[in-house]
Amino acid sequence: GLSQYSSDPRTEWDLSSYSTREQVLEAVRSLRYKGGNTFTGLALTHVLEQNLKPDAGARLEAEKLVILLTDGKSQDDANLAAQTLKNLGIEIFAIGVKNADEAELRQVASEPLELTVYNVLDFPLLSSLVGRLTRVLCTRIKERSHKETTDTPVNMGPQLSPTDLKISAVTSKSMHLAWSPPLRPPKKYRVVYYPSKGGTPKEVVLEGAVSSLQLSNLTSHTEYVVSVIPVHDTATGDGLRGVTSTLPLSSPRSLRVSELSHNSLRLSWKAAQGATHYLVLCSAAPDGAED
């Protein structure tokens, strides 16, 4: 499976989309590069929420590996998102190109770092990694598959997944989130929210006993994407996702002009709720315009 990201992650194809090597290679050849920002944390969250699910082709018994390829330093908290994946038994390999931050790659990647972190000076040099990376990946899958361990992520549907996300009390600056907890409460919830047209994602971590949150200090008249992700000790449930727009700021109404003289006039209007100041702009009308 493959996803590209900038400020908004995009799934190019799921784990179940292709069944042969030739189909995958053809999809790679047809891939269009997605430029833009570098929100690596949001991309890793997208992979967990969207790509490592049974309905996207993830088999419960299979080992889960994520290969991160980046050419820059993340503009959000990549380490926190990566830690969530690693806590769920998902192994991360980090490959940096050009301006990638070596320290960040080492934070994001799984141990042992000598096998999971790679860095090259330019894109053509990635070809030099293919042979070694292939051998390492195959070896790691075999090693992990032969170990009987309890920390392999398992999706148990309703037992682990919250439902019924409700977004209410929406104002120009805030909104209230509430959801129904799963049958087995998670250890924590990660609530990630960001403007749908691009912007820095923000995250709130809640204890598993909490099932509501007030989001404040939002931007007015803006569409927000909200995700609620349950984090369990040994498994992952499906996250909830919602989209809601904050209200526009209220405007002054009923502008009236009075007390006209040769060099003055009086303006009056109905107040805008919540306004602390007004900015009044005045300029001469162009010739021929209404007085």
Automatic annotation (TrEMBL):
It is found in: Secreted, Extracellular space, Extracellular matrix. CDD domains: FN3. It comes from the Eukaryota. Pfam families: fn3 (PF00041), VWA (PF00092). Residues 1-133 form the VWFA domain. Residues 161-250 form the Fibronectin type-III domain. Keywords: Extracellular matrix, Secreted. The keyword Protein transport does not apply. InterPro entries: ECM_Assembly_Org, FN3_dom, FN3_sf, Ig-like_fold, VWF_A, vWFA_dom_sf. The keyword Transcription regulation does not apply. This is COKA1 protein. It comes from Certhia familiaris. The lineage of its organism: Eukaryota, Metazoa, Chordata, Craniata, Vertebrata. The gene is Col20a1.
